[in-house]
Amino acid sequence: MPKIVLASASVSRRRLLESAGLKPTIMVSHVDEETDFFNAMSPADMVIALAITKAHTIREQIDFPAIIIGCDSTFEFDSKSLGKPETPEIAIERASRVRGNSGLLHTGHCIIDTTKDKEISSIVTTKVTFDNMTDAEIADYVATGEPLHVAGGFTLDGFSSPFIPSIEGDYTNVVGISMPFVRKAFEQLGYSWPEVKVMQ
Ligand SMILES: Nc1nc2c(ncn2[C@@H]2O[C@H](COP(=O)(O)OP(=O)(O)OP(=O)(O)O)[C@@H](O)[C@H]2O)c(=O)[nH]1
What we know:
- The protein is of the alpha/beta class.
- Helices cover 35% and strands 24% of the residues.
- It has one domain (3-196): Maf protein.
- It has eight helices and seven strands, in the order βαβααββαββαβααα.
- Strands 1, 2, 3, 4, 5, 6 and 7 form a seven-stranded mixed β-sheet that branches.
- It is elongated and about 50 Å long.
- Keywords: Cytoplasm, Hydrolase, Nucleotide metabolism.
- It is found in: Cytoplasm.
């Protein structure tokens, strides 16, 4: 039985898999995402390219039967990709722009079955709508530090949840990995969900 390997440093992704009963082995790809090559792509193309790169980077490092899952998320607003804000100033500027508006949270997924040499890659997109946050609410939210390290600078399941009245599409996709997509991908690879849950 192959191991499930999550090619990600994301605690949110690990938690999503584990809370659905999966037992992933974590292997961080350390892929450099901030290159001109990726930044020149559209938001949707970038997350697929990065998910594939992360999964293949780990593919080259392992010699045991595995199903490798690579992901990348970004928030598309005004046709631009808003990744992790990294600084409070950028986080405040972004929140001021997206308040009262909607954007698209794209997550690229790449799933490689090394035992069958098969690979499934796809993007899942969720529309996220923000309430009108006051300047004080934005400052208070950014001061938590949480938005600095997440795509788009918001957390649907964290401190910004009071400011997101609606989403259209998959909730888990926003948090970091689309679990309905993962289940379908495993089915396409020939594994039932109960089988997947005993892989480790
Ligand atoms: N909990 C939570 N995390 C979010 C949300 N939106 C984005 N993220 C996280 O933001 C991060 C997006 O950055 P990525 O570059 O895709 O992933 P990473 O965390 O750098 O980890 P790698 O896969 O190793 O690159 C991921 O960890 C997502 O789980 C959200 O609403 N809730």
